[in-house]
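ok so heres the complex, two chains, lmk if somethin looks off
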Amino acid sequence: MDITEAQEAGRAVAVLDGRLDTATAAMTEAKLTEMLKQGGLIADLSGVRYVSSAGLRVLLKAAKQAKEGQVPFAVVGLQPPVREVFEISGFDKIIPAFGTRAEAAAA
Amino acid sequence: MSPFRLRLPPTLDSVTALQEALDSWSEEAGLPMPVAMRLALVAEEVAANVANHATGASYFEFGATLQAEGVRLSLTDDGPDYDPLAHTAPDTAAPLEERDPGGLGIHLVRTMTRDAVYAREGGLNRLTCTLPLGG
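and the predicted structre for the whole thing:
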């Protein structure tokens, strides 16, 4: 898992590339937690083709942290296998998802 | 295609090792990408479950056999009696504040596979299920 930082219309973006799973959950969680302390965050998952329950836990924690801090958190670029896991888990109802970073930043 | 079988110590490193070995097997078996993804996911969830919960197990063994109706999967470990299917499914309609991350892994396994059965046999935990090839 590689995570790079970007900006979209003044909003911080975490660009994730790789598997979000048991092996990468801890480092991903640390990075998202740190970035969310600075304000709202968009997690760009275009480069993620695999998310397991360990990865879902990371995104759930990020969404809860954002809610507590009253800052926006959204995901963008869900690939079909990731979308399937989101839908089975009901995450499509609790984490705002957009097609592009621009749409997420404007929401 | 010969069946996949791998026995590993119940650690989180083993979960990664299992996935890597299974990816090669899936490719050799020519599994369609969505099926290979679900297979990797189901394997991770059941193996991580043993690594995280089965204190006292000295190994887990994951098996996958390609059959006409799907990939027949089995996960065996020598830990204490533990039925992962006994947990109630998480409430996937609950709002964010009430969502608890527990149970999501087994929920994914139950949803993606058919005929999931747990049995305690000869001092071993044995979980079997079938991953459909279509859909």
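quick notes: The interface with chain B takes residues 21-23, 49-50, 52-54, 56-57, 60-61, 63-64, 67, 80-81, 84-85, 88-90, 93-95 of chain A (CB under 8 Å). thats all i got rn
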